[in-house]
Design brief:
By secondary structure, this protein is an alpha+beta fold. It has 3 domains: about 5-80, no CATH class; about 90-220, Trna Endonuclease, Chain: A, domain 1 (3-Layer(aba) Sandwich), CATH 3.40.1350; about 220-400, no CATH class. About 40% of the residues lie in helices and about 20% in strands. The protein is built from 10 helices and 19 strands. The strands form 5 sheets. It has a 7-stranded mixed beta sheet, sandwiched between helices. The N and C termini lie far apart (about 110 Å). Bound molecules: zinc ion.
Length: about 400
């Protein structure tokens, strides 16, 4: 396998002084001379995931220049996987760039600092405050991001994640969570602040700073303002939505109440009608029509109304005479006589309530008792209503047969 490594660190296998070999032979040879004159060597970076072995520049006539492990690549992970080497050194290069930027601001920086529960890329001290800068160049799952973020926030006063182009989805998650996310374009040493409505606005790293208030870029204030405006709008929209929902719920409740009231009114009308129907004789035998049953309307009637409808009643008397009414008080005697006429000559059966002629109500029991005692009617409860029947009438006969 051809060794195609072109990345290394100078001075020390554990350092962060990244060296990138020129792809053309002349440039590679110039670097070789320069390193020799400085008495410096190149190493396979442990921080980038390499073996820590020494590397030398190979710039022959035929193949493109590359870095060769002086004692053989062996099981070096970077020699076998150029993409992995690129990513490993890229991370180191970003750390180095950020460290220079921070030290230029007079801040004290520790790279790859071990903390309780993990390790941070850059731990920065700003007077008594600590700030973690975490460089995220590779994709990371939501669970892992949350776990690491919690560890960092426990260890430091403030945390800033810097996302490379391959960690876009993690950046989008933090943006959704906190409103803004910091993007990193390390080849051009630019820092971008992204906010949902404005997108990413880029600034050179030299225009950014880290101080007691945190990480700042020229685009940050606008991004935060846009985020807060979006939040306010969302809140206002939610209030409008909730007010509409409340209104709809109130209207639905009012409509339900109206329906219930209408149903109750309808129930009352039915009950009233049922009570009126129950107070009437349900049917009657009309003399001369062969026992045809007809409904009667217009109850209750006063005694005068009854008598005007049946003038024959006034001269009529039953074969047994009126002696059986002896127990009925005098002021109800006329009504009692008329009821006797009705049950003997007009109707064959009906509800007892049909005798409730206004003015004699309190004597109704006496009248019914007297009619029963003399054998003119008998009582029968039917469907919850007390009914009377003339013995031997069609209704009575049907009832006796059943
Ligand atoms: Zn190596």
């Amino acid at each position: 396998m051809v060794d195609e490594l072109r990345l290394a660190v100078r001075n020390d296998a554990d350092g962060d002084r990244v060296f990138r070999l020129s792809a053309d032979r002349a440039g590679a040879l110039r670097s070789k001379d320069e390193l020799r004159s400085q008495g410096t060597h190149l190493w396979c970076s442990r921080q980038a995931g390499g073996c820590g072995g020494r590397l030398q520049i190979n710039a022959g006539e035929v193949v493109r220049p590359y870095l060769k492990h002086t004692t053989g690549a062996g099981s070096c992970a970077l020699a076998a996987d150029i993409t992995r080497a690129e990513h490993g050194y890229e991370h180191l290069l970003v750390q180095h760039t950020l460290r220079s930027w921070l030290e230029d601001q007079g801040l004290s920086v520790v790279l790859e600092k071990t903390i309780h529960g993990g390790r941070v890329d850059l731990l920065v001290r700003i007077e008594e405050l600590t700030h973690v800068l975490e460089v995220q160049l590779t994709p990371i799952s939501n669970e892992r991001w949350q776990a690491r973020d919690a560890v960092y926030r426990h260890a430091a006063h403030d945390v800033t994640w810097l996302y490379g182009p391959r960690a876009e989805s993690a950046a989008a998650r933090e943006q959704a969570l906190r409103g803004v996310a910091v993007h990193l374009d390390h080849h051009q040493e630019r820092i971008g602040i992204a906010e949902a409505s404005t997108g990413t606005s880029w600034s050179p790293l030299s225009a950014c700073r880290l101080d007691r208030r945190g990480f700042w870029t020229p685009g940050l204030d606008a991004a935060i303002a846009a985020h807060e405006a979006a939040q306010r709008k969302e809140l206002a929209d939610r209030h409008v939505r909730e007010a509409k929902e409340l209104q709809a719920r109130l209207e639905a409740a009012a409509a339900r109440r109206r329906d219930e009231e209408q149903r109750a009114a309808e129930d009352r009308r039915i009950q009233e009608r049922a009570a009126t129907v129950a107070a009437r004789p349900v049917e009657t035998l009309v003399p001369g029509l062969g026992g045809l049953l007809l409904p009667l309307e217009g109850y209750p009637r006063s005694l005068a109304q009854w008598v005007s409808a049946h003038p024959d009643a006034s001269g009529w008397a039953p074969p047994q005479g009126w002696a059986f009414l002896y127990d009925v008080p005098d002021d109800a005697t006329n009504a009692a006589k008329f009821v006797t006429y009705l049950v003997t000559k007009i109707y064959g059966s009906g509800p007892v309530t049909m005798f409730a002629i206004p003015g004699i109500h309190e004597h109704l029991d006496h009248i019914v008792d007297a009619l029963q005692a003399v054998g003119l009617i008998h009582l029968r409860e039917h469907g919850g209503t007390m009914r009377w029947e003339r013995p031997g009438s069609a209704m009575s006969l049907r009832a006796d047969l059943s």
